[in-house]
Design brief:
By secondary structure, this protein is of the alpha+beta class. It has helices at about 55-60, 65-70, 75-85, 130-150; strands spanning about 10-20, 25-35, 35-45, 85-95, 100-110, 115-120, 120-125.
C-alpha cells in the first residue's frame, strides 16, 4: 500500500464504527487507476488509536435521526433529552452511492443493559422524515473526519489530559 494519501474523491466509506476501545473501524472502497485500467479496492481498517472528538461528536449528531425514524412518543424536547441520556450512536453504514444510510446505536435500558437500535434505511435523496438535508450534512462531516483519521492522522490529543499518557497503539493499524 502506498504511503501517499489517496485523493478524497477516490475514497468511499461504506461503514464507520466507533469501537468500544475508543478507536475506529472503517470499511471503504478506493477507486484506483493503474496501467490504464480502473478498479475498486475494498478494505477494512481497524485502529485502537483514539478517535478525535470531532468524529465522535459528528457521529452523536445522528442521534436525532435515529430516534425520529422510530417515532418515539413524547414532546420533541423530552425525546431529545432522553436520547442524550440513553442513546449512543455506534456506527453508520453508507451505501456505495452515498445516497442512503443506516444508523446503529446502543440504547441504555432501565436495567442498565445496552440494546442495539438500528434506523431503517434513510434515503438522503428523499424528504420522507423531514431531516434528510441535515443528516446529509452530518454524513459529509463524518466522512471527512474518517478520512482525516485514516490518512491525516487526526486523533484525540491524549497528552492534553495526561502528559505521560501515550496512545496505546503507537504501532501499526
Amino acid at each position: 500500500m502506498s504511503n501517499k494519501a489517496p485523493d478524497k474523491k477516490s475514497v468511499k466509506f461504506t461503514k464507520i464504527t466507533l469501537a468500544k476501545s475508543g478507536g475506529v473501524a472503517l470499511q471503504l472502497e478506493e477507486t484506483k487507476i493503474e496501467n490504464g485500467g480502473t478498479y475498486i479496492e475494498k478494505e477494512t481498517r481497524e485502529s485502537d488509536k483514539i478517535a478525535h472528538p470531532d468524529l465522535k461528536n459528528a457521529m452523536q449528531d445522528l442521534k436525532i435521526a435515529l430516534i425520529k425514524t422510530w417515532n418515539l412518543p413524547g414532546e420533541e424536547d423530552e425525546v431529545q433529552e432522553w436520547a442524550e441520556n440513553n442513546l449512543e450512536v455506534s456506527s453508520i453504514s453508507i451505501n456505495p452511492s452515498g445516497e442512503a444510510i443506516v444508523v446503529t446505536g446502543k440504547v441504555k435500558a432501565e436495567t442498565g443493559q445496552k440494546m442495539s437500535m438500528n434506523s431503517p434505511r434513510i434515503d438522503l435523496t428523499q424528504d420522507a422524515y423531514g431531516f434528510e438535508d441535515q443528516v446529509q450534512d452530518t454524513v459529509l462531516t463524518i466522512k471527512a473526519e474518517a478520512y482525516a483519521f485514516l490518512y491525516e492522522n487526526k486523533r484525540a490529543q491524549l497528552e492534553l489530559f495526561d502528559g505521560n499518557q501515550e496512545d496505546p497503539s503507537d504501532g501499526e493499524d
